[in-house]
Each structure stands twice: as C-alpha cells, then as structure tokens.
Design a protein that fits this description.
The structure is a single chain. It is built from 1 helix and 8 strands, in the order H-E-E-E-E-E-E-E-E. By secondary structure, the chain is an alpha+beta fold. Strand 2 (about 55-60) and strand 3 form a beta hairpin. The longest helix has 23 residues, at about 10-30. The model has no long low-confidence stretch (mean pLDDT about 85).
Length: about 130
Amino acid sequence: MKIEIDDSFINEDINDLEFEYLKNDIIKEDYEEKGIIEVVCKLGNKDGLQLKGAKINLYLLEGVSPKLKESKYTDANGFLRFDNLENGCYRVISIVDRNYFEKPIYQTWNEYNVDKYNKYTSITIINRIKKHK
C-alpha cells in the first residue's frame, strides 16, 4: 500500500524556522557583549606609585602589521580602560621616553584575544626609571 504525503506545508514550516533561527542569530550578534581591557600604570614595581598621564596605545593585530586602534592617557590613579572592543587580538603598548625609562614590564602579558569566551583582562604596566652612569 502506497501513501502519498503532501509535504508542501512542511517546507513552508522549515523555511519559517530557518528565518527565525537566522533572525535570532542576527539579534544575538547585535547585542553581543564587547571586550574590555583595563590598564594600570605604575612606577618602579607593581606596588609603586600610579603614573598619571602615561600614554598607552591599543593596537589591533591583523595581518602583518598592527593597526593603532586607540590612544589614551592614564587618569590620576594611573588607570584607563579600553572598552567596546570587537572580537580580535589586541596589544597594549606603554609609550615612554627611552632616554629616561627602561623598557616597560607588562603583568599579565600585553596581548589579549577578545572572543566569545574572553571579554575582560587587566594589565599592569611597570615603568622603571633608567639608571644613568
């Protein structure tokens, strides 16, 4: 015995379900949480004085050369925040006069990958004064 099934309504329902699924993905993508990198800049060591007015650059690492995304200066507490970051790999660089300061030390590492699982990090930058001979 052969039974014929009219499946035209099934295809219509599947198309509606696919549309709802795509619509939900678009809405979720529009409201996806953005990344945050907080920076504290100190003098000498991790317990040292906070550095007000230190220039910090944020680079987006895409392809061969990093692209400057944003530059900010630390506040009176040596603090700044880069927020609303899209997914991607970022590098934080402290801009110092190398005539007076050693190469900065970054605790934790100065690169951070923002993705769906990693949305926040805090980086402490230590600037040490050069000892002149």
